Amino acid sequence: MALFTLLTVLWVLSSGNVFVVSLAFADLVVAFYPYPLVLYAIFHDGWSLGDTQCKVSGFLMGLSVIGSIFNITGIAVNRYCYICHSLTYDKLYSFRNTLMFVGLIWVLTVVAIVPNFFVGSLRYDPRVYSCTFAQTASSSYTIAVVVVHFLVPIAVVTFCYLRIWVLVIQVRRKVKSEVRPRLKPSDLRNFITMFVVFVLFAICWAPLNLIGLAVAIDPPSVGPSIPEWLFVVSYFMAYFNSCLNAIIYGLLNRNFRKEYKRIIMSVWAPRRFHTETSRAGTEGLKSKPSPGLNNNE
Questions:
Q1: Which of 82, 108, 172, 267 is the most buried (most CB within 10 A)?
Q2: How far, in Å, CA of 84 to CA of 78, rounded?
Q3: Which string of b and e fits 134-152 if b means at least 16 CB within 10 Å?
Q4: How many structural domains compose the chain?
């Protein structure tokens, strides 16, 4: 029953929104398990939960991080195909294919994390009170992580968004070809939202990855010379990125702002919330909405 409900919800969502839901899940993974353990370690001034809990926490941290960047890459490719190759988009991103693409993203995410158990790079770091990826565990593996998990996805996303920006500029100057449809305002707003998500991800994660790359190239000399405060700031700035996406959606998307308001009202003024909900339901029955309306417009 739960699987049927999930598939029904995904069927209602467009293919682009399915990727956004997948990204939201990646952001929430760290909130359910690793972050509470980090707070526990901070309050107890150290890790006292055992090696198994440490490995699980580090695994879920990696699942969230790599899942986020892979989903952001998937969103960029999806938007690129939707805007720049609109004639083949519906066939390429059918409901079945979209679920397969999202599944592939998570399979690649798990595959990318598994080598950590063989290298022994999931360790407790007292500087950040977290069980996380140890950049000094293996120089070659750290370089591979930075390249495969950060630089390559950033390059793919940059290429996709640059091509989209070129098309947006052409459309605004009315120099588009006849086979490319005019961009709708909702398409442009959605693109800008995901572009901001990508830019903030790159800004938040670049310092930590650059530190890891520098340490991996020359561990004996570079490792001890990096100030502890710089590593701590870059680490928490990177993981703070998981909290930013919800804020971005709220600032740039009208529907998210509306739902945030509904949630706040349901918590602080439940009677008023139920009254307005009942009133909206009654009005909705009286007036049938037009099937051509788009929630994003």
A1: 82
A2: 10
A3: bbeebeebbbebbeebbee
A4: 2
Instruction: Encode the chain (297 residues) as per-residue pLDDT tens digits.
Output: 333 333 334 444 455 678 888 888 888 888 888 888 888 988 988 888 888 899 999 999 999 989 999 999 998 898 888 888 888 888 888 888 888 999 999 999 999 999 988 888 888 988 888 888 888 888 888 888 889 889 999 999 999 988 888 877 776 665 444 444 455 666 667 777 778 888 888 898 899 888 888 888 877 777 778 888 888 899 888 888 877 877 787 777 776 667 667 777 776 766 665 565 555 544 444 444 444 334 443
One-letter-per-residue 3-state SS of 101-112: HHHHHHHHHHHH
Same domain, 208 and 91: yes
Domain of residue 265 covers 256-287
Tokens representing 237?
Answer: 């700035």
Assign 125 to helix, strand or coil. strand
C-alpha to C-alpha distance for 122 and 135, rounded to whole angstroms: 10
First-to-final CA distance of the chain: 33
- Residue 80, both tokens: 């690129």
For residues 10 and 135, membership in a common domain is answered with yes
Are residues 103 and 144 part of one domain?
yes
Residue 240 belongs to a domain: yes
Give residue 173's identity as a one-letter amino acid code: R
SS3 of 136-199: the string is CCCHHHHHHHHHHHHHHHHHHHHHHHHHHHHHHHHHHCCCCCCCCCCCCHHHHHHHHHHHHHHH
Q: How many residues would you count in the chain?
A: 297
Tokens of 213: 């790359």
CB 161 within 8 A of CB 76: yes
* CATH number of 209's domain: 1.20.1070.10
What does the DSSP 8-state code read for residue 290?
P
**Whole-model pTM over 0.90:** no
